[in-house]
Amino acid sequence: MANPAYSRNKGFTTPPREMSAEELQAMYNAPAATASTRSAAPATPVTATNGAGANDVTGPAMTIEGTMAKTFGLFALLVAGAVGSWMLTTVNPAAGMMAMIVGGLVGFILAMVSIFKREPSAPLVLLYALAQGVFLGAISRIFEAQWNGIVLQAVLATLAVVGVTLALFASGKIRASAKGTKVFLIAMVGYLVFSLVNVVLMSFNVITNPWGIGGIEIFGIPLGLIIGVFAVLLGAYSLVLDFEFIRNGVANRMPAKYEWTGGFGIMVTVIWLYTEILRMLAISRN
Which of 31, 69, 82, 271 could share a disulfide with 133, CB 3.0–4.6 Å? Predict the structure, then answer.
């Protein structure tokens, strides 16, 4: 029902347990520690659990700050790969096209391995970020050559969607709900079916329009533009789910290694958002 990067682990999908009135009263009645007792107390390691029934892991727990730091690091690596791929495509378009295909394929394989792997792997996530950077850099340069200025517009639009969604989530104005997530699931399945049918029709030349079904106009508006707006809304809600899962992971005190899972999940959603916005802008330019 959401990003598969999180859904395989109950630590992300299980909301933190609310404390009962008796537990809160007992905490209130407990004597406060003095400065001397706090300084004399020996440091004890933090015990965190992945929430999936595995053995407890002794060590640092997952934090919001740590997750954000790893997320920014992953996007920095993605940008580095994108810059290199952009330059390669500018000099040699054929090599850039090959880089786009290889980067997209390698990124997809690494994403599947990371999703179904029981434990998060930092090297796999880092390689995924680099491969996706190569893919995005090449495809962005191809689009830019056809529609001047479109990449900057797509980047700014993506940052706007992510920033607004994060601000609304942090302020508590939007939250994921069971009903909303069910609607999201139905909408996502419908979108995936549409995309699959579109690819099949284009592959067999049933539709010769470069955008496939998306090139068909309804009341003068390309269907692909309408679907693109719909996909962006799905991406925004998917970000809300990502933030919710990360918050659950922190509240459930999962091990710090799962911060890589948090960064990976956000990156998957943001990359999808960017490509959808890039495609939507290209259709609108036509």
Answer: 82
